[in-house]
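Task 17 of the worksheet. Students: predict the tertiary structure of the chain below and write it out as structure tokens. Keep your answer in the requested format; marks are given for formatting as well as content.
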Amino acid sequence: MYSSTPEHHTYSINMIFKTKYKAWIIAFMLLSKIIVITMLILLCTSSADSDKYVLENIHGRTSIRNYSDDPVPDEKIRELLRAAMAAPSSRNVQPWLFYIVKDREKLDRLAAGLPYAKMLGHAQLAIVVCGDTGKGSPNEEQKMNWVMDCSAATQNLLLAAHALGLGAVWTGVYPYAERMHVVRETLQIPDHVIPLNVIPIGYPAEYPTPKDKWNPENIVSGFDAKAD
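Model answer:
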């Protein structure tokens, strides 16, 4: 009759251990490959979804003039301002200044004095985008870059509002002297700061369909806009 020795037991245990160890190594390597492949797929999908979301946000934004009575929380106001300040700026001067208006009396005064901002009468918030001409170069021509910089900041703000589920509309102030006077007097804005616009903001009480503004006739040359 066959009888095993202690050495044989040890050898058998070692063989079993090595076999299981190899199996675990193979399983681990396969699992690692699956994880890596899955992560790559998710990254590619996430990138594609992100690109699609950005374009949908741009094309889906529209001017909102009616708002609910719900206040806009400070966290969202902060996100709006962060987005606005991420705009391009000539020589990185960042000439923008933002006046946050929540006071009911001031909102009503602006609504009464600005011809195209009557919706401020029922908005819970307004952000006034201004250019600080005291920033940057003393060159008068370069000082006017604040208009472009603050316009870019305003567009960022409007897109951020749409992304955050808020409604907003650009109401023009500059270069109209009477409108600038109303805003200056209401908010006590100094002479070297110029109000570009007033942006009423709130949770939408209306959902108008965005306008499709694509028009190939606005493209002069260098691209076959009519080809699809």
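Marker's comment: The chain has two domains: 1-60, 74-202. Residues 216 and 226 are 6 Å apart (CA to CA).
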